[in-house]
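Issue 218. Parser rejects a valid record. Input:
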Amino acid sequence: MSLFLLTALVAAGAFGAGLIGALTGLGGGVVLVPLLTIAFGVDIRYAAGASLVSVIATSSGAAAAFLREGFSNIRIAMFLEIATTAGALVGAHAAARVSTSTISIVLGGVLIAAAALSWLSPDAAPRPDLPPPDRLTGRLRLDGELPAPEGPRRYQARRAPLGFALMFVAGGLSGLLGIGSGAVKVLAMDRAMRLPFKVSAATSNFMIGVTAAASAGVYLGRGYVDPGLAAPVMLGVVAGSFVGARILVGAGVRRLRVVFAIVIAVLGIEMVRDGLMRAHR
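Output the parser choked on:
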């Protein structure tokens, strides 16, 4: 295979990853790492390095569109980024001490669990019969308005301490696995904090760039960022994220959940299989 064709195929795969990432809040990295390791045979640490660079680009591309449409909640994002950044630094330093087979299996398990939780999630926004927000949530004013066909709809976050703890875990997975950990972020905001799914996906897209930047520096310092791989990946992901951001505005919530669950379940199974094969070599 020629270098030009290989680069074009990588860019095309990255475009699809960016499209799915913007639609679901995954950021593309969760699709890219399995794609590069399984389809193109890239070492998982170099795949993670390229993925982290692309996740920063994805966040920059999609976040602007989501902010303009009014889906992202900046106050919630800034609060939760404290936890994800700290977790990302811990995970990035642990990555060099963990075998590639273990990383693959861990990533696969995370994806399968996230797919199951997403599939079982309710489609509606937080219900009016939920208990009132906790004291911290109210003090930080973690509320907002969601654009809807019938007009702006207000929502209120809940269980901020639980969401903060889950974001530390999401950041650790980001640094360890080279992903934006958008799956965990979306689930934490959607299930734990009871935010509407579109708000969770849009806010996750805004957050993943900051989380990835915290761990990308560690990967860059260790030589795991290859410009020849990262450049086509980044260009493809940015283009895909712009398209995905436009589609998200009019997409149905149930369809987004189905896409989210199916894609990451398939990737999770493939990563577990790949990790087990590596472990037995």
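Fixed in the parser; the record now loads. Residues 3-279 form one domain.
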